[in-house]
UniProtKB/TrEMBL annotation, chain A:
Belongs to the GcvP family. N-terminal subunit subfamily. This is Probable glycine dehydrogenase (decarboxylating) subunit 1. The glycine cleavage system catalyzes the degradation of glycine. The P protein binds the alpha-amino group of glycine through its pyridoxal phosphate cofactor; CO(2) is released and the remaining methylamine moiety is then transferred to the lipoamide cofactor of the H protein. The lineage of its organism: Bacteria, Bacillati, Bacillota, Bacilli, Bacillales. The glycine cleavage system is composed of four proteins: P, T, L and H. In this organism, the P 'protein' is a heterodimer of two subunits. Residues 5-446 form the Glycine cleavage system P-protein N-terminal domain. It comes from Natribacillus halophilus. CDD domains: GDC-P (cd00613). InterPro entries: GcvPA, GDC-P_N, GDC_P, PyrdxlP-dep_Trfase, PyrdxlP-dep_Trfase_major, PyrdxlP-dep_Trfase_small.
UniProtKB/TrEMBL annotation, chain B:
The modification N6-(pyridoxal phosphate)lysine is found at residue 273. GO terms for biological process: glycine decarboxylation via glycine cleavage system. Residues 353-453 form the Glycine dehydrogenase C-terminal domain. Its EC number is 1.4.4.2. Residues 35-300 form the Glycine cleavage system P-protein N-terminal domain. The keyword Nuclease does not apply. This is Probable glycine dehydrogenase (decarboxylating) subunit 2.
Length: 452, 486
């Protein structure tokens, strides 16, 4: 190599001295166990090394080819939301003691991370109304899938059918399908009626083979599901009720735990996590103590040290892959610790009343948008109660309408034709606390102009 | 010096305090309770803390001081590749045009993001010798499961549903058998021989018509290159099975050996290890999966493709195993990995592996007189040592690990792999200086002497941390998993 690379401290003198200690004539000798036939014929081809300056230039040029939500009002939601992120979040997660640490295997030098996770588990528990929560999952969809697998293992694999409502996010339904293919479970979809789970149809689908019923609250279309009725239905066949919830909505809505949900999962992206084109976000998994030993992923527990001082450790590890190997409750290892930390900071910043206020603010803005759109002649596709998302009929292909909206500088709502061709005139509109009245009015005007 | 217990944030809470603000409400105030069915209005607010902004910042700053990261000091945790996480990657990951993108923005609005991903896929395909790569898996274990589901789909398409076994070495990462289980396979263990490599006779014995795949890390978790890899691939392929490469240890072989040439059909890479996506205290990670041509149809939906000058998502993939993750994977980690790759360049990555391997061999050699080194040959990026000798004095690997904390080092991985007694697995990485390696070796040597002369000093360690050894039995027997007001 020519110039020494800034990340590689080995000097020529170091190399010589170290080779001497090792007793090798050159570095190539250290690789002599690699058979000739598997060595590359040519040098790797991933480009020349870039200086820091050139690197930033290059990534800025990539960024410039994108349209940032920071420059345009957006009405997209469907699992990823444009919420206010307190400055404290980035200040905390930028502390390298957190972001450059590994999973806290050595508790004596990882008390910060362990305590932060313990606090996250506590916050998720209280928000969902559940007895316990784990340290995080990859995202809300895979958390739901792990819930489905846990339902079947909880029933000792004697029940092998999972029911999922059609009102669960379509991508989440796809993810659950792929996951349940592993152990060979059957996934059946329960149809929707007026934008919510059809409880009558659900009751008809119930058999003794049903291990779990999977629903979303508020659901994909923004509607608030009748959890009491769903709980009652699941009870008929002793199935677990697994609820996927936007945690922000739970600031205002009765938590699933109070309706007797067995598992509550979701994604904490609304609390302090940037959109990042869909990831990384942060799944959560909350449940009842009765299922403690079946839970996937890491758990942090409180204990004491030799002098009786309070501390925290990874616990109940006998469930996990590094101990139980193929009998583990899940194969998950790395989770989303840093994003769980981001969400903890955001939840603490907003606090006990602030989370509710934020939820209320979302509902008020969404309500204003809904009323303005209705006044402008757009009809609501479903009329149930909703949180911060609802579906309107734009009278023509929503995809085209969105192009027109973008020509006015607005990122429109989600074209539902993306998931079901027959819904191509339906737009899922999301309004968060960040949308101003002026931006909402602009959306309504532009929609009237292009789709009215 | 011991610090006082750090209060939980809930314990600092006082009614009436706030640590954040919300955007102004400029729409008419409505009573939202009236918009909801009565039973669905939350009656009791969640028990979240009520703290001021400064309290919040001090709390998390205090917690950060009770945590050890790569920036705090040497972190030779084997199989985890704790190398320097470049600061510029954090700057890049926060550029508004990359950080604030919604996954459902139409493709024309995100061409830069798609280009970045496409280029990263191509680079990973180049490094691994694979035909096509998906960036969707969130971590190594997720990648393993994705790859195994693809292998399963291929066998099923060929009508070979009897292939239910996945062969895994006894030295494999715990995620390997766990992933095999979750993908619906039965794991079968193949033994390690006296060389520290896969026992070839045993491999032949366990391979057969029911073999779906062999999962292998190469170099393996003992830090040794499986030099029989070509023959192993032949055995598996001749039996109709596929080879899966666990890329957790790929820091050793960039530009030195290509998994595709070794005969692997599926590969995952841990971008949070080899490619510096920070570990974040346990994630988020990213575990892209690459496959050879035969397996391309089974890659999860959607697949990123280039159509003329435009990048787009291809959802029409009838043979795909399905969707494995919302949206398109952990883009935020993928871009950091790509920034790292571009900052190193081809030559640099090659140098990374050379230096990582030399560092590991140097440390191994320096420790050899004081600890048992079960496998004396050259290692790759990591090596294992055994505290067998110290155990006779009553000092175990765990005690040595705890004593290292007093010397200011994060300990190596301990008690893994499972097939080495009192195992310590050391991975120094290429970003450490010789001086640091020497300091660590000196500390290890000093501890070996302490074990002989003053074992209690080691047995009672750590002495210098904020807390002493914790009662893990109590934590598991009487689990307290959340704060509850007394």
């Amino acid at each position: 190599m020519g110039q020494t690379h800034r990340y590689l401290p080995m000097t020529e003198d170091d190399r010589r001295e170290m080779l001497e200690t090792v007793g090798a004539s050159d570095v190539a000798e250290l690789f002599s166990d690699i058979p000739e036939s598997v060595r590359p014929d040519a040098a790797l081809n991933v480009g020349e090394a870039l200086s820091e300056h050139a690197l930033v230039d290059y990534f800025q040029s990539l960024a410039a080819e994108n349209v940032s939500m920071k420059d345009h009002p957006t009405f997209l939601g469907a699992g990823v939301y444009d919420h206010h992120i307190p400055a404290t979040v980035d200040a905390v997660i930028s502390r390298s003691e957190f972001y450059t640490a590994y999973t806290p295997y050595q508790p004596e030098v990882s008390q910060g991370e362990l305590q932060a996770i313990f606090e996250f588990q506590s916050m998720i528990s209280t928000l969902t109304g559940m007895e316990m929560a784990n340290s995080s999952m990859y995202d809300g969809h895979t958390a739901l899938a792990e819930g489905a697998l846990m339902a079947a293992t909880q029933k000792r694999m004697k029940k092998k059918t999972i029911l999922i409502s059609e009102t669960v996010h379509p991508e989440a339904r796809d993810v659950v399908q792929t996951f349940v293919n592993g152990p060979g479970l059957t996934l059946e979809t329960v149809p929707a009626q007026a934008g919510a789970t059809d409880v009558k149809a659900l009751k008809k689908s119930l058999t003794d083979d049903v291990a779990g019923v999977l629903v979303q609250y508020p659901n994909f279309y923004g509607t608030i599901e009748d959890l009491a009725a769903l709980r009652e239905a699941a009870d008929e066949v002793d199935a677990l009720l697994i609820v996927k919830s936007n945690p922000l909505a739970l600031g205002m809505l009765t938590p699933p735990g109070e309706f007797g949900a067995d598992v509550v999962v979701g994604d904490t992206q609304p609390f302090g996590i940037m959109g990042q084109y869909g990831g990384p976000h942060c799944g959560y998994f909350a449940t009842k103590k009765a299922f403690m030993r079946k839970v996937p992923g890491r758990l942090v527990g409180e204990t004491v040290d030799e002098e009786g001082q309070r501390g925290y450790v990874l616990t109940l590890q006998a469930r996990e892959q590094h101990i139980r190997r193929d009998k583990a409750t899940s194969n998950i290892c790395s989770n989303q610790a840093l994003n769980a930390l981001a969400s903890s900071v955001a939840m603490s910043a907003f606090g006990k009343h602030g989370v509710k206020d934020m939820a209320v603010r979302n509902m008020q803005k969404a309500h204003y948008a809904k009323q303005s759109l209705q006044a402008a002649g757009f009809s609501l596709v479903y009329d149930g109660a909703y949180f911060n998302e609802f579906v309107i009929d734009v009278g023509q292909a929503a995809e085209r309408v969105n192009e027109a909206l973008f020509s006015e500088g607005i990122i429109g709502g989600l074209d539902l034709g993306r998931f079901a061709g027959e819904n191509d005139r339906h737009m899922l509109v999301c309004v968060t606390e960040r949308r101003s009245k002026e931006e909402i009015d602009r959306l309504v005007d532009a929609l009237q102009k292009h789709a009215g | 010096m011991k610090q006082k217990d750090q209060a939980l944030i809930f314990e600092m809470s006082k009614p009436g305090r706030r640590g954040g603000s919300l955007p102004e409400n400029d729409v008419p105030d409505v009573n939202v309770e009236e918009l909801l069915p009565a039973d669905y209005v939350r009656q009791e607010e969640p028990e979240l803390p009520e703290v001021s902004e400064l309290q919040l910042v001090r709390h998390y700053t205090a917690l950060s001081k009770r945590n050890f990261g790569i920036d705090s000091g040497f972190y030779p945790l084997g199989s985890c590749t704790m190398k320097y996480n470049p600061k510029i990657n954090e700057v890049i990951a926060r550029l508004p045009g990359l950080a604030h993108l919604h996954p459902y923005q139409p493709e024309p609005q995100v061409q830069g993001a798609l280009r970045l991903m496409h280029e990263l896929q191509a680079s990973l395909a180049e490094i691994t010798g694979m035909q096509e790569v998906t960036l969707q898996s969130a971590a190594g274990a997720h990648g393993e499961w994705t790859g195994l589901m693809m292998i399963r789909a291929l066998h099923e398409a060929n009508g070979e549903t009897q292939r239910t076994k996945v062969i895994v070495p006894d030295s494999a990462h715990g995620t390997n058998p766990a992933s095999a289980g979750v993908a619906g396979f039965d794991p079968v263990t193949v033994k390690t021989d006296e060389r520290g490599l896969v026992d070839m006779d045993h491999l032949k014995e366990v391979t057969g018509e029911d073999t779906a795949a062999l999962m292998l890390t190469n170099p393996n978790t003992l830090g040794l290159f499986e030099e029989d890899i070509v023959e192993m691939a032949e055995i598996i392929h001749n039996a109709g099975g596929k080879l899966y490469y666990d890329g957790a240890n790929s820091n050793a072989i960039m530009g030195k050996a290509t998994p595709g040439d070794m005969g692997f059909d599926v590969v995952h890479m841990n971008l949070h290890k080899t490619f510096t996506g920070p570990h974040g205290g346990g994630g988020p990670g990213s575990g892209p999966v690459g496959v050879k041509e035969e397996l391309v149809p089974y890659l999860p939906r959607p697949l990123l493709v280039k159509d003329g000058e435009q990048y787009k998502w291809d959802y029409h993939r009838p043979d795909a195993i399905g969707r494995i993750k919302p949206f398109y994977g952990n883009f935020g980690i993928n871009m950091r990995a790509y920034a790292y790759m571009r900052s190193m360049g081809s030559q640099g990555l090659h140098q990374v592996s050379e230096n990582a391997v030399l560092n590991a061999n140097y440390l191994r050699k320096r420790l050899e007189p004081y600890y048992d080194i079960p496998y004396p040959q050259y290692c790759k990026h990591e090596f294992v040592l055994s505290a067998k000798r110290q155990k006779k004095l009553g000092v175990r690997a765990l005690d040595i690990a705890k004593r290292l904390l007093d010397y200011g080092f994060h300990p190596p991985t301990i008690y893994f792999p499972l097939n080495v007694e009192e195992c310590m697995m050391v991975e120094p990485t290429e970003t450490e200086t010789k001086e640091t390696l020497d300091d660590f070796a000196d500390a290890m040597i000093a501890i070996a002497k302490e074990a002989e002369e003053d074992p209690d000093l080691v047995l009672e360690a750590p002495h210098e941390t904020v807390i002493s050894r914790l009662d893990e039995t109590k934590a598991a027997r009487q689990p307290v998993l959340r704060y509850q007001e007394q």
